[in-house]
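Structure tokens please, single chain.
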Amino acid sequence: MPHPTFAYAELYATSIDVPVVKVPLMTENYAFDLQSMQKVADDFDGISLFYLCNPNNPTSTITDTVNLKEWVGNATSNHYFLLDEAYSEYVTDPSFESGVAWIREEYSENIVVVRTFSKLCALAGMRVGYAVASPQTIGKLEAFISIDNTNLAGAVAALATLDDEAFLVLSLCMANQSRQLVEQTLDELGLRYLPSQASFIFHEIQGDVQTYIDRMREHGIAVGREFAPISGFNRLTLGRPDEMAVFVEVLKSFREKGWV
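Here you go.
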């Protein structure tokens, strides 16, 4: 798995004593180091499962589609890919291609794409997610799925959301407006940020990140934690535009005080 990334795949693996190998992100642009990950797996005789969060959490960036597709397509039979596309609905980069398309093309049976109703659909508390894979792969996965892994309230809410296209459009529109507002402010302040393809922005802080977090909390704003080993950056979740307007006002006041 890349490092840093969403940690729960690692936590589940270690809970059943499966060894996890972390490959640091490339330092210049915080992208996945696909070559290093492939080398680690090639040097291992057993089965390797690559956990790839795309867009990545916490960086909010996507992985180069051409390189990833080539790697997956040429992978050996003991290499499997778990593509976490929790934030795929927010992607605006036209070069992005979902792993679901590759499964539909019967491109490979060694891919599982996982998605969630927690983000764009705003059902995080319902805990509803789903996997997409070939019929053969799904058949193998079903042997490990409990019969009660989705609660009734979550299932009903998820089905209702699928039919509520107006809400999904509104949800995406609000996220895009909030992203534009924050990015414009970061540009004005000269604070670097990675190109966001998710519902959050990974941006630079000029100063101690924990102090910044504490000061934001004192103003009633909860921002993300620091993600080691990356230093000097903060992960900001995008709320509604009116909420982000409050954040922008506070951030600008921090600049006036020389805090960021």
